């Protein structure tokens, strides 16, 4: 399910996931917004910050444009964090504290590009409104270099359609470990 073509287009990451035929058709037929050519004069706030925004100063934060230009064999995966852009999101505040203090997660994150989109308002203008309909925060997505959401990289503890929502940093860590080991096992098997 292609949601992002790096360097050319950005599409929605924010949707309530259900892998039924209607959702897949909707995503495949969605209009994709183009990433404008960036210049010195353009505001690229929507691309995500290069600073932690309270999510942990020791993570190697990049914006989406940096990540698209820097994908390499040693960092082929992107972890996209989409928190709410306000201080009254109880879930964001709780998991943010766990996220920034989780040493294991920090260690494994060195193998990923980590991008922080601030939430609905910041990125909505660059997403197709037909699929940018998730109103739960925070969301965490693992993407491959060619822009696909890794379909099995979800919170397996969720029994609803909010599989990109995590209650605790330890749940994100479990998914990050699966992605790390799954990707490198796949690459090893490919050789």
TrEMBL record:
The keyword Methyltransferase does not apply. InterPro entries: AGR/TXD (IPR051099), Thioredoxin-like_sf (IPR036249). Keywords: Signal. The keyword Signal applies. Transmembrane segments: none annotated. It holds the Pfam family Thioredoxin_7. It comes from the Eukaryota. This is Thioredoxin domain-containing protein. The lineage of its organism: Eukaryota, Metazoa, Chordata, Tunicata, Appendicularia.
